[in-house]
Specification:
mainly beta; Rubrerythrin, domain 2; flat; 47 residues; two-stranded antiparallel ribbon; single chain; 3-stranded antiparallel beta sheet; 5 strands
Length: 47
């Protein structure tokens, strides 16, 4: 799995969040496990 530029990844073990600043090959690891890709945050309404 390649990591994606601008995406946030979170460790399910310790809760660490990482922001990808350079895309590349291979998984994002923490606590010897692959970090999960976080869902996009919703933007506030402009109404």
């Amino acid at each position: 799995m390649a990591n994606e530029l601008g995406k946030r990844y979170q460790c399910e073990t310790c809760g660490t969040v990482a922001l990808c600043t350079k895309a590349g090959e291979g998984p994002v690891l923490c606590c010897d496990k692959e970090m999960a890709l976080q869902d996009a945050r919703r933007l506030p309404s402009s109404d």
